[in-house]
Amino acid sequence: MAAAATLEAVAPTGALRGLVHDFVMGQQEGPADRVAAGVKSGSYTVLQVVEALGSCLENPEPRTRARGIQLLSQVLLQCHSLLLEKEVVHLILFYENRLKDHHLVIPSVLHGLKALSLCVALPPGLAVSVLKAIFQEVHVQSLSQVNRHTVYSIISNFMRTRDEDDGWGKGSP
């Protein structure tokens, strides 16, 4: 009986690992929507997605890391409303750290931050932290127009969803 329960728990994560592999290595876009659908339906958690991406996110090849972060970012864009505050905090810290990564990874990181900028569960002060990290780590003026627009969208989302008590008042950068 316990073995059957363990097998049931492993099967979804095995399927998730297959979808992650298909997206990252196969250069296919469809698996991202299937992973997001799995998160929305409760078949997977965001933590399981991150765990399935583990080796991709640590890969020495920047393109592989970029694809892994791109998958996570696409899932977050579709599932941001499901995130809890503590998940948002950990994801923000992860994405802020990834802003220091190779320039090929930055567009995917910005898309993830855009998704997180839409979260209602974003604690006060993190919006300012994200913007500081972006402007300290990324030479925004050198980005392509599409990626500059993503940065603009992050700022716009924060301005629309945050109030002055979140650090947007006088004296804020």
TrEMBL record:
Pfam families reported for this sequence: MMS19_N
GO CC annotations on file: cytosolic [4Fe-4S] assembly targeting complex; MMXD complex; nucleus
Major subcellular location class: cytoplasm
Protein family according to the UniProt entry: Belongs to the MET18/MMS19 family.
Function, as annotated: Key component of the cytosolic iron-sulfur protein assembly (CIA) complex, a multiprotein complex that mediates the incorporation of iron-sulfur cluster into apoproteins specifically involved in DNA metabolism and genomic integrity. In the CIA complex, MMS19 acts as an adapter between early-acting CIA components and a subset of cellular target iron-sulfur proteins.
Matches recorded under PANTHER family: DNA REPAIR/TRANSCRIPTION PROTEIN MET18/MMS19, MMS19 NUCLEOTIDE EXCISION REPAIR PROTEIN HOMOLOG
Complex and partners: Component of the CIA complex.
Protein's name according to its UniProt entry: MMS19 nucleotide excision repair protein
Organism of derivation: Rhinolophus ferrumequinum
Lineage: Eukaryota, Metazoa, Chordata, Craniata, Vertebrata
